[in-house]
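queue> pop job 88
queue> type: inverse folding (structure -> sequence)
queue> payload:
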């Protein structure tokens, strides 16, 4: 099992444990905010399962049907995860509005606060681990899963604070039960923001969105550094698929240069790009460097 797959499996196991605890606490207390957190964790579990499938499939080498590899499966999984989060947020808002219209007492608050704090603690550790692996392995699916859990940390803490305020208010004779659905709506709005951000990040590579300007500039610097003085390059472009960066450009070299010499220059540029930009796939189209007509040169000088 690869490192990415092991990280996804850790997320699956932690989410199963937290769902069981949150569902139990929600049933005992009748708190819609705890139930909303259980739903959030259920979506996290689905996301973790999708991420586990995606990272294992993305590592499959290119084949006859997919000659450019399977990297985009990670982006597809990110889009599915984002849509699941949107659906969960909508359901939470629906339930919370119902509680606002028909308020009910919340019980077992101490148990609920304890479960929420424990959930936040567990997810803080798992999320940090997933982020580290995602950055090192350039995994979109794991990064999306880590984002799920980071949101879960913040929403769990929000629910814990809301339940604590209701608990303290009860000691002073103040009924703050309406805080429960209000906190649940706050959780849902935060989840919506998370989902929209994730959807944007995961969907762009499916449309062959360009790699970052920083990466393109870095690639241009490397090509210029390794390109001979009498050569040049143009039409540099790049796109992202999962962790893979596809980079291609046209390299102009003197037409008298041998094929072997041209190939050696291309190899040096390709190796330098792959060393500087992890998981880069480089394609170089070599063209003969034509001498500029004297008349055209004079026109450009005078322009």
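queue> result:
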């Amino acid at each position: 099992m690869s490192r990415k797959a092991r990280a996804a499996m850790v997320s699956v196991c932690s989410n199963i444990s937290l769902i069981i605890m949150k569902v139990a606490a929600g049933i005992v207390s009748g708190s819609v905010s705890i139930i909303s957190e259980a739903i959030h964790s259920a979506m996290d579990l689905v996301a973790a399962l999708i991420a586990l499938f995606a990272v294992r499939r993305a590592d499959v080498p290119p084949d006859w049907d997919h000659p450019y590899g399977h990297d985009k499966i990670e982006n597809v999984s990110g889009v599915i995860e984002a849509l699941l989060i949107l659906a969960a947020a909508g359901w939470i808002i629906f339930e919370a509005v119902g509680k606002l219209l028909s308020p009910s007492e919340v019980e077992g608050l101490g148990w609920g606060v304890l479960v929420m704090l424990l959930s936040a603690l567990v997810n803080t550790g798992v999320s940090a681990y997933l982020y580290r692996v995602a950055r090192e392995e350039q995994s979109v699916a794991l990064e999306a899963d880590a984002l799920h859990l980071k949101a879960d940390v913040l929403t769990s803490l929000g629910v814990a604070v809301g339940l604590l305020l209701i608990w303290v208010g009860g000691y002073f004779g103040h009924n703050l039960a309406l805080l429960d659905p209000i906190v649940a709506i706050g959780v849902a709005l935060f989840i919506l923001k998370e989902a929209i951000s994730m959807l944007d990040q995961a969907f762009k590579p499916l449309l062959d969105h360009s790699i970052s300007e920083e990466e393109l500039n870095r690639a241009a610097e490397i090509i210029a550094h390794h390109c001979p003085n009498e050569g040049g390059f143009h039409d540099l472009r790049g796109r992202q698929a999962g962790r893979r960066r596809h980079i291609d450009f046209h390299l102009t070299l003197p037409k008298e240069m041998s094929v072997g010499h041209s190939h050696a220059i291309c190899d040096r540029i390709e190796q330098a790009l792959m060393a500087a930009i992890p998981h880069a796939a480089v394609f170089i189209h070599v063209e003969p460097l034509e001498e500029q007509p004297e008349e055209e040169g004079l026109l450009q000088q005078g322009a």
